[in-house]
Amino acid sequence: MEKIKQLKKIIKSKRFIYLSFIFLLILFSLALNIGFSTFTNRSERSITNIKVAGMEYSLYINGKPNNIITAAKNEDTPANVTLISLNNVDSKYELTFKVCADSTCNNFVETPNGLKIEYSSKTIDDISGAIPKNGVKNLRIIATNETNTTYYIMLDINAGYIHNTLALKNLINTEYNEEDVIIATIIDGEISTTFPTTKGDYDTEVTCTTNNGASNATGSATWNGSKWVVNITGVDTGRTICNVEFYVQIINKILAQGGGITAIETKGNPDFDSSSSSSDTGIYAMEDEYDMSYYYRGEKNYLNNNLIWGGFQWKIVRINGDGSVRLIYNGTEAQFNDSSTMNDTGTNTQIKEAAWNLTNSNDAKYVGYMYGGANGVASTQRNGTTDVAATYNQRNSNAKTEIDNWFSDNISGKQFESNVVDNLFCNDRRLQNEVGGSSTGPGYGDGGSYFAAYYRLWTNSNPTLKCGLKNDKFTVSDTQRGNGALSFPVGLLTADEAAIAGLENYGENHTNYLYTNQTIWFFTPVARYYSLNTQTTFMFASGERTTDGSFFGKSGDLNFGVVTINLGLRPVLSIKGDLKVTGTGSATEPFIVN
Predict the structure, then answer these.
(1) What angle do CA 432, 437, 438 make, to 5 degrees?
(2) Distance between CA atoms of 294 and 93, rounded to whole angstroms?
(3) At residue 282, what are phi and psi to the nearest 5 degrees?
(4) Pairing mode, strands 175-176 and 213-214
(5) CB 117 within 8 A of CB 68
(6) Distances in Å between the alpha carbon of 247 and those of 201, 457, 561?
(7) Residues 311-315: contacts with CB under 8 Å, at least 24 apart
(8) DSSP class of 455
(9) Strand (E) positions, 397-517?
């Protein structure tokens, strides 16, 4: 009984009451710690450790004790973060951050537009989750800074006990795709989510890049008999993006219009005695100086031979025997963009009007794209390497000067100039008796002379894509097959090419794809003979009759023009046949070289 009295006395004492209050306060504080799932960061941290209300963690960035990332301007900065629990109990964690204005992180700023902190697709552990006592988490984040200012990212931890729900701050909530290779597919210029299901006529090209530009990775796409298989090698950095492009070369698109090589070659050539019509419109085959050539013939409304390249419109004339594609000028790309269709007629289809030779027509040498001696100096022999030789490729005709100037101003030095091929132009200066015709003058001086093409085209309607003499095969650097006399790989259409396209001697043809309702020069000599009581030098041409009678053509025909009159110039050149193109080749959806 005495002990009970003493116990009551102690309970009633002030000291007991005070100690009990302290004990209850401690229990209440402990209950608060257990009841709340997030904790106030007391900022009690060293360079490596972060304390969160009784729990402690250590952070390493890229293997070094640190919690600040430098996000350099206009760069993506990866960071491998190691989170180590220094606690003897399991806990929950979340990686968070603040943006600092300086490297010491004494001043914080709002996350600016253009700065993102994301978790990497290659992170080993999640940005948030459970971490065992004394456990380790390996996290990978990417700071994408698209601004012109360098920022500093201070990493922090949001943590709580394992048996509680952690209220996430979700500051790092989007993924940065950092897979080794991302494959993007392009089919005929259109983005696709799948590969083609057939081999078709597709060629392929694989190009790889990274966020920082070029990549060392290379690749190939091959048809294994049942599907396309892509192989990428040399990947040495994350987030490599490889574009796999499936395309059809321009020559294969052209050949497909004619049903393929076999179908084109089997049908033979049309009747060159008549103008082209709807009945013989199509693609045909004829050998040239290189191999088999495939040429367009016929009506413009039925042919899909329109092309945009180098900022200009073109009509495709033929596939050359070397696999290149011969084009004739048809206007500018800007004109197509304005009207949404290719030019049809008018002066827009040519670069200008000019004389083949400015002042003289009293010598057979003036049929040359180049010739010997100065203007006004008579030629006294046909061949040779002196000033008096008519066929000496020494001096430019006015037509060559104009064509060269256009090429120099518009093609030379441009990136797409590498597409141009050195394919020959034939300025056939043989005499007609050398190809089966009667004897007709010496081919030089002021006497009468008829050239091979007069007999071949005007007498016999028998065009060819072959060229007789090496001296007349104009090339730039090809001196094995050609003369190497050109400064630039550009010229004009030959009269033979105009004939196989469907123009007839002295006959109108307003539907042919070469018809523009303008008078134009061809590359082919005709003759030096009497006209209007004057001994005059003529080149092949096509178009309308001139008011002075010096040109005897009709609209859309194959005829003659005196070398001193002004006729239209439509440059001709050849581009690589393996170029990628989109479009169908129609007047409203032309092929466009990519």
Answers:
(1) 100
(2) 72
(3) 160, -155
(4) unpaired
(5) no
(6) 8, 40, 44
(7) 311/410, 312/410, 313/342, 313/343, 313/590, 315/513, 315/514
(8) I
(9) 420-421, 425-426, 449-450, 473-474
Residue 32 token pair: 């608060």
DSSP bridge pairs for 107? none
Strand 181-187 and strand 240-247: the pairing is: parallel
Beta bridge partners of 229: 222
Side-chain half-sphere CA neighbours of 488 within 13 A: 23
**d(Cα 536, Cα 530) in Å, to the nearest integer?**
6
Here the tokens at position 375 are: 């203007």
Measure the N-to-C terminal CA separation of the chain; round to a whole number of Å.
108
Look at strands 55-61 and 49-52 and give their pairing: antiparallel
* pLDDT score, position 196: 94
Residue 234 burial (CB count, 10 A) = 11
State both tokens at 16.
């007991």
Answer whether 144's CB lies under 8 Å from 118's CB.
Answer: yes
Contact 404, 487 (CB under 8 A): yes
Residue 166 CA to residue 43 CA, distance in Å, equals 20
Q: Write down the residue that tokens 């003036």 correspond to.
A: 366
Q: Using DSSP bridges, classify how beta strands 64-65 and 55-61 pair: parallel, antiparallel or unpaired.
A: antiparallel
- Indicate the residue type of 29: S
Q: Rounded to 5 degrees, what are φ and ψ at 114?
A: 95, -5
Buried b (16+ CB within 10 A) or exposed e, 19-45: eeeeeeeeeeeeeeeeeebbbebeeeb
Which residue carries 């003289």 as its tokens?
360
Tell me which residue of 57, 67, 42, 49 sits closest to 154, measured CA to CA.
67
Helices (H) and strands (E) in the chain, counts: 8, 39
* Residues with pLDDT less than 70, the chain: 1-48, 53, 532-533, 545-547, 549
0.85 exceeded by the pTM? no
Specify whether the CB–CB gap between 350 and 569 falls below 8 A.
yes
Cβ neighbours of 149 (radius 10 Å): 13
